[in-house]
Amino acid sequence: MNATPESFDPLKQLLQTLDLSDAGGAQTDEDIFVGPGEPHAVRPRLFGGQVLAQSLMAASKTVDPDRLVHSMHGYFLRPGDVTLPITFGVQRLRDGRSFSARRTHAYQGGVPILSLIASFQTPNTGLEHQAPMPEGIPAPETLPTTAQLIGSIDHPVAKAWAYERPFDIRHCGPNLYFDVKGEHVAHQAVWMKSLGDMPDDQNLHRAALAYASDYTLLEPVLRRHGISWATPGMSVASLDHAMWWHRPLRVDDWLLYVSESPSASGARGLSNGRFYTRDGVLVASVAQEGMLRLPSE
């Protein structure tokens, strides 16, 4: 891949990626939208979080503006190509008094690479409770950035992780980029925040959170077995992704992402995660199963 230009702005690129076109008003039995691949990616395969976020934005364009996405269930069907645009077909499954349901397929080369169903709700009130935020978490300002940790490593993937992500990601303990230090436990905590201010569009913030949620969700599986992202010959791919948004949020404020893995078997690993604001408000929950294949002994 070509080197990323010095003027590359990861957050600007994210906003452009999520600003889908309406394909000139094209429509079949679906609403049609088009979005870009990842022109600056150093890997050949599309980042799953991007396709999730774009699919949610496509669906949100077909519902009333006051209805916010509250849940999403998606399956990754095929690897996407970073060099190709993506076509999104949205089927309007139902519009009720308070809820709207949409099915989005993301296509490349005429075949679906992602299938997703999302539900949107008009804001309402009702019962309230939440799981508490973990205690003893260090403040994000006290933790090193990814650029500080690995930005000096002369490797294209290290440079991409350090400088080309639209989010500032700070591990609350040892990271897993190139080695694994500390205990081999099946849980971790990470602070995340976009690199700059985002527009005041709650569905955009929720889609951006779906994007970011895919970065580290499988890390508890790897951490439990002492495996880093740089393990030679390892193959990792997201299989499915479910997410629930509980309360309003902003991805341009720090969010604590706590995650754990209850199980790994059959070359698959399952992880669950929760997002908290700095003052302890639970804003979203997420679950994902991924394929993890290691080189033969």
UniProtKB/TrEMBL annotation:
Q: Which residues form the Acyl-CoA thioesterase 2 C-terminal domain?
A: 179-291
- Keyword match Hydrolase: yes
Keywords carried by this UniProt record: Hydrolase
Extract the Gene3D superfamilies matched here. Answer: Acyl-CoA thioesterase, double hotdog domain
| InterPro entries, alphabetized | Acyl-CoA_hotdog, Acyl_CoA_thio, HotDog_dom_sf, TesB_ACOT8-like_N, TesB_C
Q: Source organism's superkingdom?
A: Bacteria
The keyword Hydrolase is annotated on this UniProt entry = yes
Q: Where are the membrane-spanning stretches?
A: none
Q: Which Pfam families match?
A: 4HBT_3, Acyl_CoA_thio
Q: Which residues form the Acyl-CoA thioesterase-like N-terminal HotDog domain?
A: 41-121
Q: Output the PANTHER family linked to this UniProt entry.
A: ACYL-COA THIOESTERASE, ACYL-COENZYME A THIOESTERASE 8
Q: Which family does it belong to?
A: Belongs to the C/M/P thioester hydrolase family.
Protein's name according to its UniProt entry: Acyl-CoA thioesterase
Q: Which organism is it from?
A: Arthrobacter cryoconiti
